[in-house]
Design a protein that fits this description.
homodimer, about 350 residues, alpha/beta, Rossmann fold, 13 helices, 12 strands, about 45% helix, about 15% strand, elongated, DNA-binding, DNA-binding (chains A, B), HTH_LacI (chains A, B)
DNA sequence: CTGTTAGCGCGTTCAT
DNA sequence: ATGAACGCGCTAACAG
């Protein structure tokens, strides 16, 4: 039993489809009597308008496409949460699409044409120029944390460079000098910016940078910690490029009986919910990613409404000082703790 | 500059729209020469088919709607992750819709008609009968963790009753007798089932159930712990209806200097990633929610493909014994610890 | 192999 | 206030 159409309602109510359409969209120019009759029939038939057809007719989909690398970790979940909130406030749906490789990416993007009114692209790991190249220019888009040379597309970005530098300065102010950075994959723009910020601040403080390359996953943090423990070499702080790696390092250090932060301080980046809950609680750079998601939707909605906006908006992370960096390091002469 | 349509391509290539449509959809009955010409023109015009129009024509949206209460917490994020994985494997998009109140819920559902091929409804807090009532019957749906009296709709459910009972038995086997349950809101089916399972197992063990009503949020766990500390009353275990509340209780107890698990054991439900990372690590019932999400999509895809399936599938949570319930309780005569 | 034509379900002029 | 007719962009019979 197929669903009723507007035509069924019109026939049953002995009116034209135009009238039915009018009452459906709340137009005023309908006689109350006619309106009632149509509403009755619609209710009786269990009729509901077909959103797809409506989209085609009005060329408005009331949906915006969201392109994410994957949903792993709390970071992207949080972003999605913010977008969802902003979207439902505006009566918009979210059409999800995960971008794994770069190849199917363009194809996926095209699959969205005609089904969304705009696109939020959040792909720090994919060359966005290649992405945008194949994109229909007529569809409003906003780039979030993407590396792009084009300045004709609205962009939202986190000040990763400044954030990383701020964290280094915080550690230095606490008396740390052997600060190692555990980075994200170098193919990721955000990871690169954090490396750059770290290195700049280290040099500025007259210290020698040392970067261990990771991949944003917990295990990479643990591996980095293990490597450092193998040859401590005066390391008194680990600054990971995200919280998950920081937590991996934290747990590895804890299990090895290292005193945190006395012996080695630990710091992360993002401030995912976990950072506050783990113990000792993790010092990190707060990135209000839910808010960034919400602002992306807000700007896109404006763009769709005809207020195009080609600015670059920069969001500055905030330093959250917690337990893992609270004290100054022990004197290097002191013997290693034998906790647990 | 509006986007090119199939007609533009046809005109430019001096063929009919039918031929263009054929090459677009990879039909074989097209002369290679014609095919090449069409492909050239399409590329030159930057033409991409309009998914919306295609949906209308084929009455297949290649998208499935996902209805969630909200994205708060790791639980629903995980579910979404599983669905997304299963969906992209099948070339399906996910159309998100958050159900806050029950009123706009039905309306939201109808907004999806004509834009999705199926619906995953995950709403333990809303009366699904009311939800389904207004729903077009022609659209395949699957209920996940919903309370429903209808058995004509495929359902996926976690064995919350059995899981809660299993946890109680575990605690009892560890010598705990004063086991308090911190529940979710009683309007939530899952919360109710967990209460029932807890109570049944307590009675079975000859113990007196005691339930503190919470709301699945961290703060409720902390509040429950505070209340218990005010009048310990022989309580030697707190079993929270989800991990977030268990963690709230855990931290509150820790801050109050209570020895965990020596004095009071703590257990949760769900096994969110945090449960393993917190310390002491949390004993909990593992619900593979990502897998449940994936299976929901899989079953829906089958139903859409014409293999309708009205079974009720039950997923059994698995007991994860971790640090918070490792030991037996101290003798009650022993004096309260004065840790920290 | 290719073109013509009729829908898909709805919004929207333009008449009346 | 109402109805007839066209268009949105594409697919799928049906002819040729």
């Amino acid at each position: 039993m197929a669903n009723a159409t507007i035509r069924d309602v019109a026939r049953e109510a002995a009116v034209s489809v135009a009238s039915v359409s009018r009452v459906l969209n709340g137009h005023s120019n309908v006689r109350p009597e006619t309106r009632r009759k149509i509403e009755d029939v619609a209710a009786r038939l269990g009729y509901f308008p077909h959103a797809g057809a409506r989209n085609l007719s009005t060329s408005r989909a009331h949906a915006i496409g969201v392109v994410l690398p994957d949903l792993h970790g709390e970071f992207f979940s949080e972003a999605l949460r913010g977008m969802d909130r902003a979207a439902s406030e505006r009566g918009l749906h979210l059409l999800l699409s995960n971008l794994h490789d770069g190849e199917r990416a363009v194809e996926m993007l095209h699959t969205m044409r005609g089904r969304v009114d705009g696109l939020v692209i959040m792909a720090p790991h994919i060359d966005p120029d290649r992405l945008l190249a194949g994109l229909p220019p007529s569809i409003p888009s906003i780039l979030v944390n993407c590396a792009t040379s084009r300045d004709d597309c609205p962009t939202l970005r986190v000040d990763n460079f400044g954030g990383a530098a701020a964290m280094v300065r915080h550690l230095v102010s606490r008396g740390r000098r052997g600060i190692v950075h555990v980075s994200g994959p170098t193919s990721n723009v955000e990871a690169r910016a954090r490396i750059d910020g770290y290195e700049a601040a280290m040099v500025e403080a007259g210290l020698t940078p040392r970067v261990l390359i990771g991949d944003f996953m917990e295990e990479a943090g643990a591996a980095a910690a293990a490597e450092i423990l193998r040859a401590p070499d005066g390391v008194d702080a680990i600054f990971a490029a995200n919280d998950m790696m920081a937590i991996g390092a934290l747990i590895a250090l804890r299990d090895a009986g290292v005193a945190i932060p006395d012996q080695i301080a630990v710091a992360g980046f993002d401030d995912i919910p976990l950072a506050r809950l783990i113990s000792p609680s993790l010092t990190t750079m707060r990135v209000d990613i839910a808010d960034i998601g919400a602002r992306a939707i807000a700007r896109l909605a404006d763009a769709i409404a005809g207020t195009p906006d080609h600015r670059l908006e920069l969001s500055t992370p905030e330093l959250m000082i917690r337990d893992t960096t609270k004290t100054s390091p022990r004197q290097s002469g002191e013997k290693q703790g034998k906790a647990r």
